[in-house]
Specification:
This protein is mainly α. Helix content is about 75%, strand content about 0%. It starts with a helix and ends in a 5-residue tail after the last helix. InterPro entries: AA/rel_permease1, APC_superfamily.
Length: about 500
């Protein structure tokens, strides 16, 4: 096989394979109704995931946080090349949750408890927990911005009350918008994407034109003065990378709509890598701008909302108010991205028999509304945790587990005799299973140890506890689901 065949994309063949998939069966009730541009419109909210971590990362690493973001997006490309191939190998699978469940389950297993399905299902549950809290995190940020920008609201409501009200309105509104299918969400995504990038680009680039960006704020503060390259620092850095990939690698969500793309063989890789290119520039530029304008001390004075003083410095009070209101609209976009991703993860698990079948129910438009309602209620509870970074730290534990297991799934898919011969319209470069294995081990155990250690020295054992408890809850649910599936198979079939 020549190099072009091994590393490139045979788009004609991919499209033929996609059409066969579309015609040959259903994907658990989900409808194939979007193209790659619509998938990108939904996933393009991912750059907003940098917002909760700008101040936190600068507090630990100072200006070196810029490098961490760049390396993390690079990590995303390394991992997503593998996921892009898996997406076209299993075109009916919903992204990372679906890949792991397809690879690890035992073919033609006739028993009651397939331990392989437990591994794949746990990966999917971890992914669900990684995306799910995005709703709560950004509802809290919306409440915080509203509290800061509108004094009349601040005099009447607390930040928690505003965040809770924002959550109820946004979650309920998105359920209604997406009730008729993901294509409706894509339309909203187009509108919100414009609102997202206009303020983000203006706030990120305006300081270079106004003279508010000061390069020495970066070059004179690369690392904290007491930073020592010892085991403690390495573990902290691994924890930071675990939290960074939660944001900077999250554009893999473009692949989760695999069962809903009209031509998954071509649509998935186009949506995936277009979103990745946008993320690379967004993450590096935003952290660079904030550090250059505010300096480390300025960021320390606004750890949760550093974009506010940056906007005020370059745009003035009126301009910054308009920009931040638009930024709030952009936060609704990333909430929608997370909402659709986590609901598809639950739907995928239920269809595979790894969650109770009630979570697999869809309405007449192919939307898993019940799963969306449960996710919304769960996030209203999470909002009570109050601090976005505390929720993020718990969520990052799930994301590390999901990525590690999914990368190991790619390695197995390239080596297992039952899987190696499957059609792959998109192929990662030759030998990529070794790269996937390396990054899988980077996630588990290294980043997993790092995030738990970082939580411990932050005094945030609560975040670790929440993460472990939520992930552990999957075990009894899985056994119940397997029992439910076994009973269903044992019942006599009626004509």
């Amino acid at each position: 096989m020549n190099s072009n065949e091994e590393t490139g994309i045979d788009w004609q063949h991919a499209e033929q394979c996609s059409k066969v998939v579309c015609e040959s069966g259903e994907s658990g009730g989900l409808e194939r109704s979007i193209d790659w541009k619509q998938g990108l419109a939904i996933a393009v909210g991912v750059p907003l995931l940098i917002l909760p971590s700008i101040g936190y990362f600068a507090g630990w690493l100072w200006s070196a946080a810029i490098i961490v973001w760049g390396l993390s997006v690079f990590q995303g490309f390394m991992q997503n090349l593998a996921y892009g191939e898996l997406a076209t190998t299993f075109p009916k699978a919903s992204g990372l949750p679906g890949f792991a469940q397809n690879v690890f389950k035992t073919p033609d297993y006739a028993g009651k408890y397939d331990r392989g399905k437990l591994i794949g299902g746990f990966s999917a549950w971890s992914y669900w927990f990684a995306w799910n809290p995005v709703l709560a995190i950004f509802a809290i940020l919306v409440g915080f911005y509203l509290h800061s920008l509108f004094p009349s609201l601040a005099n009447t409501f607390t930040e928690y009350q505003l965040s809770l009200a924002a959550g109820i309105v946004i979650f309920g509104g998105l359920i209604l918008v997406n009730y008729r299918g993901v294509s409706s969400g894509a339309l909203v995504g187009y509108i919100l994407a414009a609102l997202a990038f206009v303020p983000l680009i203006i706030i990120a680039l305006a300081p270079y034109a106004t003279g508010d960006f000061v390069l020495s704020n970066i070059t004179s503060t690369w690392l904290p003065t007491d930073w020592v390259w010892d085991l403690n620092s390495v573990l902290i850095l691994l924890g930071i990378f675990a939290m960074a990939q939660w944001s900077a690698c999250a554009w893999e969500t473009a692949a989760i709509y695999g069962p809903e793309y009209r031509n998954p063989g071509t649509d998935v890789p186009k949506a995936l890598f277009s979103c990745g290119a946008i993320c690379f520039f967004a993450y590096v530029i935003v952290q660079t701008t904030v550090t250059g304008v505010l300096g480390i001390e300025g960021i320390a004075n606004a750890p949760i909302d550093p974009m506010l003083p940056v906007a005020q410095a370059s745009l003035g009070d009126i301009g910054s108010t308009i920009a931040i209101v638009m930024l709030i609209a952009a936060m609704v976009l990333i909430i929608q991205t997370a909402y659709l991703g986590s609901s598809r993860a639950m739907h995928s698990m239920a269809v595979e028999g790894n969650l109770p079948k009630v979570f697999g129910k869809v309405n007449s438009h192919g939307t898993p509304v019940f799963a969306m309602v449960i996710i919304g209620l769960f996030n209203l509870v999470l909002i009570s945790m109050g601090t976005p970074t505390a929720i993020l730290a718990a969520s990052a534990i799930g994301y590390v587990c999901a990525n590690g297991i999914s990368l190991f799934a790619y390695v197995k898919a390239k080596m297992n005799p039952h899987l190696v011969g499957l059609e792959r319209p998109f192929k990662a470069p030759k030998g990529w299973k070794n790269v996937a294995l390396m990054f899988g081990l980077f996630n588990i155990p290294l980043c997993l140890i790092g995030i738990i250690y970082l939580n411990s020295i932050e005094g945030s054992w609560f975040s670790t506890g929440v993460g472990i408890v939520v992930l552990a809850l999957y075990i009894p649910m899985w056994y119940y689901s397997q029992h439910e599936s076994h009973v269903a198979r044992s019942e006599p079939q009626t004509a």
